[in-house]
Write a structure and sequence with these properties.
It is built from four helices and no strands. With 123 residues, it is mainly alpha-helical. The chain has a domain of 85 residues. It binds zinc ion. The site of zinc ion (ZN) has 8 residues, from loops.
């Protein structure tokens, strides 16, 4: 991989992850601000005898659990996109998408984790 290809791949990865981040933020705030509405919806449809104080505790907990699960999925998507774009070291399989690793690769052509050469020599 040449240096320009690596930089372009990194930019593409950044754009995709920024889009996913914005999407996550919209879901996080959108769902979080409507928790009360969801609680009322459950009160309306849930059979009688439900412990109201328990749902007040469980619904926010469920919300945080779901958001944590989505965050985990985002992490896996990040790894998948990085591997598709060639932003994974082919020797030690380290992720080269964070700013620190990217700067090391661009400036030295070597992986910042194992030190082996990743980028091709250019004349
Ligand atoms: Zn490496």
């Amino acid at each position: 991989m040449k240096k320009d290809d690596f930089i372009n791949s990194k930019k593409k990865h950044h754009r995709i992850m920024a889009f996913i981040g914005i999407l996550y933020f919209i879901i996080f705030t959108g769902l979080g601000l409507n928790l009360n509405r969801i609680r009322h919806f459950i009160y309306y449809y849930y059979p009688p005898g439900i412990n109201v104080h328990l749902t007040n505790f469980i619904i926010p907990l469920l919300y945080l659990l779901i958001m944590a699960m989505i965050l985990g999925v985002c992490y896996l998507i990040n790894k998948y996109i990085a591997s598709q774009l060639g932003l994974i070291c082919r020797y030690c399989k380290s992720n080269l998408t964070n700013a620190y690793s990217t700067q090391i690769v661009i400036s030295t052509k070597n992986c910042g984790h194992c030190g082996k050469q990743i980028l091709d020599d250019e004349l």
